Amino acid sequence: MTQVINVVVAGLGGQGVVKASDVLADAAFRCGLDVKKSEIHGMSQRGGSVASDVRFGPHVHSPMIPTGQADFLVVVAPDQVDVNRHVLKAGGLLVSPASLEKVPGKLQAKSINVALLGVLSRSLEIPLEIWEDAIRGCFPEKHHRLNLEAFEQGRQAVAG
What we know:
The chain is α/β, with parallel strands linked by helices. The protein has 5 helices and 5 strands. β4, α2 and β5 form a beta-alpha-beta unit.
């Protein structure tokens, strides 16, 4: 990887936005990349908007992604797509719950954030085993199976 990748993860409080950004940041770090992360919580304890910027690459100067410069926008809540679309650069990729329409099997609501990371993983140069290690590292052992399955379901939703 020769350039900095900018990813915004957005949604509502309680949907695992921060946890998803933690997994992404951990996966990039496990690849030996420089990683910076920032969060805006707003009224997140009451279901308000939450966004987290994750930047990674050979060398990252700032944790904040300039408006209109996100390579990827991962949105956990469908009603937050239009609210956050302005952060995505022209030609950037939107990953939203609509990306999961072809998920094989039943997807639990509490693991949609990780399923969306599975979708995102198809567009990033991070090996599958690194993603799996990051998921195991960010969740208690009792939640490993659920989240690993959700991640794989997200990957399968966009399998080519």
